[in-house]
Amino acid sequence: MFGRFAALREVTASFDDGRLYAIFGDNGAGKSTLLRVICGLARPSSGKVTLLGSSDLRSVLGGVGYMAHAPLLYDEMTGLENLHYFAGLYRPVDDDKLRDAIRTVGLDPGLTRYVGQYSQGMKQRLSLARATLNDPKVLLLDEPFSNLDPQSAKAMSRLLGEMRDAGRTILVVTHQSVHVAGIADESFWMSAGKIVDRQPGIRAAESAVRS
Amino acid sequence: MKTAFIVFSLIVFALLTNGLYQALVAAPTEATMGDVQRIFYYHVPSAWTAFLCFIANFVASIIYLAKRNQKLDAFAFASAEVGVVFCTVVLLTGPIWARPVWGIWWTWDARLTSTLVLWLIYVSYLVLRRYATGGQTATIAAALAVFGFIDVVFVYMAIRWFRTQHPQPVVGGGQGSGLHPAMLHALLMNFLAFAMYAGLLLWLRYKLERTSHLVEEAHAARAIAGDAR
Amino acid sequence: MLFFALLVVVIFSFSFEPTSEEAQRISGGLMWVAFLFAAVVALNQTWARELRNQVLDAYRVSPAPGWSLFLAKTIGNFLFVMVLECLMAPLFVVFYNLRSVGPESMLALSAVLGTWALVVNGTFFAAMSLRTRAREIMLPLLLFPISIPALLAMVSATTATLTGDSSPTLALEFLAVYDLVFTIVCLLLFDTVLHAE
Fold first, then answer.
1. DSSP helix/strand/coil, B134
2. Fewer CB atoms < 10 Å away: N or C end of chain C?
3. Could you read off the pLDDT of B105-157 as tens digits, one per residue?
4. What ipTM does the predicted assembly reach?
5. Taking the mean position of all CA atoms in its chain, how far away is CA A14?
């Protein structure tokens, strides 16, 4: 609940390991809120969340990666510095791994520009790198493809597929079904705070069920 | 519950009336200050009552942080408000008393000064309540309440130690220094009356706050069930 | 920020006649009020960078304990405000022709303890005000009443040292206890406030 607005209503869902789930829906359908509730950023007014086998979300956060609309990065540091800093929140850090992570998302680890000067697309990609820093078993991505040009989006899509193949569980909230078309194991549709449909793979025509 | 409330109200009324009688009639007139001194019977009990309310607020806030029970939050809010009311009474009766007796509006004696700071702390609590956004107002307010109450100890000590630069008028013979038994009686009767009255107000305010919570919950339930947005 | 600190000292010098005998006695109080204002301006910026890109979410989703973030921010604020004071204090000495009767080390100690008192609660309340409207007024509004005992002690210690009228020891011990108690309270409660959304 946000004031008198119910962002999520009676949502019951379970997600299996090692699969990639795509979550579609209109704006305001509650997709972002769902992700936030799952990783503990938002507290449900009623109900329970079990993540990685535990109801105590804080204890399992070491295995979770979250990417939001906002970049969750410091404008005042370079890309590598940002990753170094946030990686340090989890465990001691190896700069080489960080450089690899940056390269994996298609950026240059030697970039000395501050993140504040990055383009939206670059921030997006670095944000994904930040979310994967701690080798998470579960990845929660909120609109990772927004602001990306088609080529980068394809690259990211491939990357997500690889991560899923490596055994990670990935939840992707997106408006653009085309990017997850090849990689999604299952898709959900949400509307007005509820899950209204659930399908294996992707329905080609994104005629989202509106109710 | 209604009957209990009415009975309680009647008792409070009786106590307050008795208190008034004790303060204005039964208690002897003070030697040096005259009848003005009778404000003492409102000034001091209000202070004690306010303090009781703030203790209640502290306890409720601490337990709220542990249990997150909405009722505790309502109680904390109510007790802070009632406490501030009585605290205001103390701060208003102080000058009213001081002016005719000592010719000054304000005395920086330890107790009055501490009460001022106490008032500031809990008014800031109420302001936080009003200006907080988001669903976790109760939690943040509870945290502030903990700070505030712990601070009170420091306030009393600091004022006692670091503010005694000049001799101050002794506020009432009520420092245990030979208070006439009839005066003590009036004092205690009024304290009882005020404390009961505070309890009554608290009860009312608590109910009000709970009702407001329940309305919100009803709206939430409706929103979830899918009516209006 | 440094220039602002300078301005504050100058304004005070204009408002409170520095040449009188009184000046020596109230200079302790004046200095601390000036420090307080400068500190508030600095404290209001504590979480500005985190807010810009919702960085706090990243902290909340990590297993890192809240109190470590708090301590880091507090120490940062502390150092920054100490720097401001190192600028402002000499200015006060110059404008008010202050001479310290007591040992300067006591002045330094009261500055350190007093600043920590303001900064530890200030950083905490700055985080609290993130969850309110009128954010920038909320910080001083919450900070001032709670800091009154510390302020009394700081001023007492500083004035006692400057004028040599009494011993600052009691005030300094008081400040030390205040600092200890409130640091512990802040560390314990910060997680709660960080996660309250």
1. coil
2. N
3. 887 777 788 899 999 999 999 999 998 887 788 999 999 999 999 999 899 88
4. 0.89
5. 17
pLDDT digits (tens, 9 = 90+) for C51-63: 888 899 899 988 8
Answer whether B223 sits within 8 Å of A45, measured CB to CB.
no
pTM: 0.88
Measured CA to CA, the distance from residue B51 to residue B84 in angstroms comes to 9
CB pairs under 8 A between B and C: 96
Task: Report d(CA B147, CA B154) in Å as an integer.
Answer: 11
CA-CA distance, B140 to C127, in Å (whole number)? 10
Determine contact, residues A170/A164, Cβ cutoff 8 Å.
yes
A72-111 residues touching C, CB cutoff 8 A: 72-76, 86, 89-90
Helix (H, G, I), strand (E, B) or coil at C131: coil
**B39: how many CB neighbours lie within 10 A of its CB?**
20
Q: How far apart are CA B218 and CA C86, in angstroms?
A: 57
CA distance B220 to B207: 20
Cross-chain CB nearest to B151 (options C124, C149, C196) = C149
- Contact flag B161-C170 (C-beta cutoff 8 Å): yes
Residues of B in contact with C131 (CB under 8 A): 132-134, 136-137, 140
Q: What residue has token string 């301590």?
A: C71
Largest Cα–Cα distance of chain C, in whole Å? 58
Taking CB atoms and an 8 Å limit, are A1 and B229 in contact across chains? no
